[in-house]
Structure formats: C-alpha cells, structure tokens
Design brief:
The protein is an alpha/beta fold. The protein has helices spanning 16-30, 46-53, 79-84, 95-101, 105-118, 130-135, 138-149, 155-160, 179-197, 199-204, 218-222, 240-246, and strands spanning 5-9, 36-40, 58-62, 89-92, 121-126, 162-165, 206-210, 229-232. It contains 12 helices and 8 strands. An 8-stranded parallel beta barrel has the order 1-2-3-4-5-6-7-8, surrounded by 6 helices. The structure holds phosphoenolpyruvate.
Amino acid sequence: MRKRIIAGNWKMNMTPSQAVALAKELVPLVAGAEADVVFCVPAIDIVPVAEVLKGTNVGLGAQNMYFEDKGAFTGEISAPMLLDAGVQYVILGHSERRGYFGEDDVLLNKKVKKALAAGLTPILCCGESLEQRELGVTLDFIRLQLKSDLAGLSAEEAARVVIAYEPIWAIGTGKTATSDQAQEVCGAIRALICELYGEETAEAVRIQYGGSMNGGNAAELLSKPDIDGGLIGGASLKTEFAQVVKA
Ligand code: PEP
C-alpha cells in the first residue's frame, strides 16, 4: 500500500511572520493525519517554519533547489543548505518554474539526481498545456518530460520520487481536471514507470494530482486508483487545506 501524500505549495506567498502564523494555524488541523503532510514554503520561510514543525507530523518542503552543492551561483539554494535547515522534500519542475524561469528537462534531470543523492524527496512536476491537450498529445508530452527528468536513475531512486501530475490549464484557474482525466494520465505515468523500472517500482512510486484541488473535489480525485495524493496551491494557504488532508 502506498502512503498518500498531500503537499501544500505556498508559492511566493507569506512573509516569514505570516508563514509562522499560518503553519501554527494549520498544524493542529492536520495532526494525526493518515497521509504524509508537507508544507512547501518560500525559501526565506524555511528556517522559521522548521521551528514550528519540529515534533509534528508535518514535513517541510522547498519549492526549488540548484544541482550544485555550493559556489558562485548567486541567488540559488543547494541541497546541503536545505537539509541543514530541516527540509525533507523539494518541488522540482513546477510549471511556473518551467514557464517563467526557463527550466528545461536537462536541468531538471540534474536537480532530481542531486536531490536524491542528498537524501531529499523530489516532488517532480509534469503536465501539459491546454494547447497540447487539445492537440491530443498529452500522454506523449508527459512521457517525454518524465523520461528526460528521470533519465539515469536506478529503480530504487525512481521509487523515491513523488511525481505530481499538474495540467497547466488547471493550475490556479479553478478548472480542475475531471477525476477520469486525472486518472487517465496518472495511470499512464504508472505504466511508464513500469516500462522503465519494472512492476515493483511502479507499485511503489507515489503520484499526486495538482490543479485547483480543494476541499470540495479532493475526495473524488483521491478515490482513483493511481492518484496517491495532491499538490495543492491556492487551498494550501487556508484552513481548507485540512479538508483535503482529511479527504
Ligand atoms: C500548484 O501550484 O501546484 C497548484 C496545483 O496550484 P492550485 O492548487 O492553486 O491550482
């Protein structure tokens, strides 16, 4: 049985003091959850939020990371820095990073490998645009993204990656994929992992859906066999996040 994982992506929201207040508000609401619960906070909020999460059931995630350990990479944050600050998870390849900051699959492959080597759990995002869905190339596109991002990983490493299927057209738009649409892609992702790494790895890998998931639609999406959790944007900044965790 795969343990479910619900992660909040706070994006570029919450100053350090606001982040501490939000974490303190949410922690008691998700205490005792059966799923793994993670807050992926802005870089500047990591240290103060880590203090709040100490001794709780909530894991701490970053939203990005560079693949080098240290050096002349102004503005970047490394895996050893994240680990030392108490981070366990890192979102990689969110569509906002791919779209606004030009991150490509070659770079993401290096980041995934570094995160795994360092002992962090990558939450690797993939997903098609509306144009790609309308052209009927969704599955081809996602296969290409994942084959590139996971290239060179061992089966044991691949099993530790959390894959987040996030159709770009559903992110922050209020338009959720139907549970059947989400299941179709998440099922295809598991089939790809099986093709690349075998049955055991495919059964172990956790696949999230993300894209306007909220307290009202989470139960239906999470009822699908290949959807093991959610990556939540907007609803992770409110007490509604606890309803998703409950679902
Ligand atoms: C996200 O940014 O990963 C996301 C899924 O956002 P939202 O839930 O707001 O669509």
